[in-house]
Design brief:
This protein is mainly β. It is built from two helices and 17 strands.
Length: 251
């Protein structure tokens, strides 16, 4: 009974980093017609035909954002609806994959310089991208600049913008966000585990009755869950002394 109580608490207190996100709808779960809500700001230059919902193996939730611009030299911008920012350092973090090139900038009354492009060669592996900047106080749009896309385009998900000081201060309180599990829900028989820490991950999986159904050590960041029936489970992850719990859904 004690184990069941602990698992229930883990479910109830699971709060992703997006709770502190300065951006609305950073997971692209809510859409209005052809664009995600709170996005496609005034500095967006990409055509609506270059923006689409991508529902295959989202990083988290059920959908991601796919951006298309096959031009090899001219970039196109996609931005959030302007928010009010302070004159402080911010950190933008998001995950990307697909085929094409993506970089970042911001608009706070004028355009900033751009970061270097990150190139994706038709990969299905999510890559964490981080961009740190300090805007002027006032309206702020974060720029996602894409070019040279093909196939499904450049796909992004789990976009988080927060003051860098806040992220640093809350590092311990947000240990659960050291780990990300995807696809989740999964229908593929496996899940990938992204971690900000290096080293093997000790994983225990429990069903809703508190019975341990998997106990293993993972070195390749992929967990085989093909033996599990459809349902809701709790994963307990331990890596180099950092421990957290994640809800896992098998469909």
């Amino acid at each position: 009974m004690r184990l069941l109580y602990i698992l229930c608490v883990a479910l109830a207190t699971y709060t992703p980093l997006t709770a502190q996100n300065a951006l609305t709808n950073g997971g692209f779960e809510t859409w209005s017609s052809t664009t995600p809500k709170a996005w496609s700001g005034s500095k967006t230059s990409i055509a609506t035909t270059g923006v689409s919902k991508y529902t295959t193996n989202a990083f988290e939730g059920s959908s991601s954002l796919a951006l298309f611009n096959p031009n090899t030299t001219t970039h196109k911008r996609f931005t959030n609806v302007a928010i009010s920012a302070a004159n402080e350092e911010y950190t933008l973090r998001y995950y990307a994959k697909g085929k094409g090139e993506i970089r970042n900038a911001f608009h706070d009354g004028s355009y900033s310089s751009y970061s270097n492009y990150t190139t994706f060669n038709n990969t299905e592996d999510w890559t964490l991208i981080e961009y740190v900047f300090t805007p002027n106080a006032g309206p702020l749009e974060v720029v996602f600049s894409v070019r040279n896309t093909a196939n499904n385009g450049v796909i992004i998900d789990h976009v988080v913008l927060a003051k860098s000081e806040t992220l640093s201060t809350n590092k311990i309180e947000n240990i659960e966000d050291t780990f990300s599990v995807y696809p989740n829900p999964t229908t593929t028989g496996f899940v990938n585990i992204k971690s900000a820490i290096h080293g093997a991950i000790a994983i225990s999986v429990y069903d809703v009755l508190g019975k341990q159904v998997i106990s293993t050590l993972v070195n390749n960041n992929r967990l085989n869950v093909s033996s599990l029936d459809s349902g809701v489970y709790i994963m307990q992850l331990n890596q180099n002394g950092v421990t957290t719990s994640k809800k896992l859904v098998i469909k």
